[in-house]
Amino acid sequence: MTKTMKAVRLHEFGGPDVLLYEDAPQPEITAHDVLVRVHAASINPPDLYLRDGYRALPPEWQPSPTFPLILGTDVSGTVAAVGKDVAGFRVGDEVFAMVRFPEDLMKGSNAYAEYVSVPASELALKPAGIDHIQAAGAPMSLLTAWQFLVDLGHDAPNPFQAFSHAPIPLDGKTVLVNGAGGGVGHLAVQIARLKGAKVIAVASGKHEALLRDLGADTFIDYTKVAAETVAKDVDLVLDAVGGANMERFLPIIKQNGVLFLVNPLGFSGHGQAAERKIIVSSTQVRSNGAQLAEVGRLLDDGTVRVVIDSSYPLADASIAHRRASEGSIQGKIVLITA
Fold first, then answer.
1. Which end of the chain, N or C, is surrounded by fewer C-beta atoms within 10 Å?
2. Rounded CA gap, 150 and 192, in Å?
3. What CATH number did the domain enclosing 86 receive?
């Protein structure tokens, strides 16, 4: 008889109200997987895009999944079972992971549930110095910031460009982080500072005190002044926002500097960048248990911290998604399952 669990599932694409808290089959594991009893799962932008059917993408890129599906990639929990070929994890271990991303980008990675099957290679021991809520908030945002700024960590083809993304040395550089109050942004501020950069944080005024506390040297409130009108001579811009007119940052970047785009869709400044010898680059964050273990040590000792905007019971996932859609998020939104 198939075991059941509680999960948040989609039976159709749409707004937050299509998220249904209901019974679902408990996942089975292969020889290389670990079954995790989920204590917390965080919300990331791909969750919102998939819930909506990726309607912003061209029709040929939109998913045609088999319903019902379960959203979510980021989890923290306890090992409930291990596959026969798994080494390094035992039942009872506290762990965290970004699950099967981007492999399951268009069909959901099943994190909004009481149990999830995770490839052992994507799993890391949860840092003892933080709780499950903070750990669940870390994986996608932290790996994104780390893979953009420090170590790509893989040689998979880049879906956004013909060349591989390459981080640059940050020591002594000036780095501007746009969207510094959000999930990726607030971690990028800390990592850039850790690696020796002077950091300019761009966000709304409500985030100023936090971002200065996290290490930002300069703060720009974009609701009062456009960052590109006051910042200058920047070595690197990390744009964690995306959207229209990302090329507006090119004039403030030094010749031979770099512009990193977390969401590059819609960027139209390649010609201008080439004229000024500015490298424009993006990459797709990928699951990586070894990297999570590495950066987990920074979470463990408090060198880097995950800021939690708000948390909700798993049953209230639709409310949490409405909060995520409101914008001006400070850090991460987390669903609590146990």
1. N
2. 9
3. 3.90.180.10
Tokens of 126: 């949860």
What parts of the chain have a pLDDT lower than 70? Answer: none
Q: Are residues 132 and 230 in the same domain?
A: no
> What is the per-residue pLDDT across 226-246, written as a single tens digit (0 to 9) for each?
999 999 999 999 999 998 899
State the angle between helix axes of 139-149 and 183-194 in degrees (0 to 180), rounded to the nearest 10: 40
| Cα three-residue angle 79-147-288, rounded to 5 degrees | 25
Look up the domain containing 198 and give its range: 166-281
Contact 237, 269 (CB under 8 A): no
- Tokens representing residue 114 in the block: 């009481």
User: What does the pLDDT read at residue 338?
Assistant: 72
Residue % of the chain over a pLDDT of 90: 92
Q: Which two tokens stand for residue 261?
A: 């785009």
- In whole angstroms, what is the distance from residue 168 CA to residue 29 CA? 39
DSSP state of 293: H
Domain presence at residue 61: yes
Same domain, 119 and 12: yes
- In our burial notation (b when 16+ CB lie closer than 10 A, e otherwise), range 57-69 reads eeeeeeeeeeeeb
> How many residues would you count in the chain?
338
Q: What is the pLDDT of residue 46?
A: 93
Same domain membership, residue 237 and residue 264: yes
